[in-house]
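Q: Could you write out the predicted structure for this multi-component system? I'm mainly interested in how the pieces pack against one another.
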Amino acid sequence: MEGRRLHLVSLGCPKNRVDSECLLGRLLEEGWTVTADPGEADVIVVHTCAFIRPAVEESLETILELARWRAHGPCRRLVVAGCLPQRYGADLARELPEVDLFVGVAEVARIPTLLDAEDPGRVHVGRPADAFPGATPRAGRWAAHAAYLKIAEGCHRRCSYCIIPRLRGPLHSRPLAALLNEARSLADDGVRELTLVAQDTTAWGRDLPEGAHLADLLGTLARVDGLTWIRLLYANPLGVDDRLLEALAAGLPVLPYVDVPVQHASPRVLGAMGRGIDPARQEQVLDRLKACVPGITVRSTVMVGFPGETDEDVEALLAFVQRRRFDHLGVFRFFPEEGTPAERLPGRVPVRVARQREDAVVAAQARIARDTHRARIGCTVEVLVDGPSREHPFLWEGRLPGQAPEVDGRVVLTDAPPDLRAGQFRQVRVMRANGVDLVASLAGGPE
Ligand code: SF4
């Protein structure tokens, strides 16, 4: 049998990462081993992202970088999977002769079979669908104590700038039983923090025959032994209703944390974006979150530079950001993605102006984050220890309950005692703030 050493690069969002972990789980079952060194891999897989232009560029750069090993190493197959082939299909195959196999979003699960086929063909891109609808063994998690749970694939909404429904297909919720099984096996495997992800987590269950609500899922997962933190990302404001507020306020393991992307605060821009919500309703949702969920941490996302956006619209957005004081805020620039309604809208904002607007919102949020962090100096808080710092050998990292993995900053731990372990919950004393990070020292032994 030919060599079965695999090197996999997973780009893009946590949903893509979950699919990569499922693919790895399947490949390990088939006798493949994983290598971090592309130079010694027999097969290289790039699981791509393509929802906006910068993601497309990053995927192409990564493919061309790894193609060197296809030409000069033991690598006998270079596989490009996921959203980039889903978006460009045969055109991509023509542009990238150095790639052996192109596999769409739904066909990712077929990679083990295709790799063992004598002549698997070159392009396998069908209708977008969930590649791993049921519980699947997963491997290669970013941490032993934390994991993402993809609760649904695709999206039923039609925001005018978004290409995701075309890449990932219509909403497809994973059944409660499969999610419960997956959560239990992750918890049995040492996961303490479970982060729920989907294109729009609030839509979970609306397409299931029995019609279910995200609150049911949160309530069910809260009873899984071993889970200490359950976190909710990607909650469309339209789906934040009283049942969800109740579930978020129910107490641990459900964290008082929500990521609720609002995108803008100008009624005209929200209308042109096709968000189906007006600023007043968004304010109401955010007010209810604060009023109904004690100690809630709110992350959000906004986009600037949308066609037709005026200085007044940006003033409205800046005033909104300064008034709402989000705990965490992602700021993006609009990109005209071909085939979206927004691509054809008049009033394109020059890139230079869009960048200035992005910088203004980022600066406003940085001031808010700095004040929020300063207020924590001297406090003793609980953190989930993630492990040794990637940047500094003598430092460790952890996160507050209000810090989601990879996006909300971290707590840098200066004095790691010998008994410190990833996955522990520890009390720490905040000593200072450092940008989006906090710096702290341990205040006691493991919880
Ligand atoms: S909710 Fe809108 S922005 Fe989000 S994935 Fe769906 S269509 Fe795209």
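A: Regarding packing and overall arrangement: The two ends are 49 Å apart (CA to CA).
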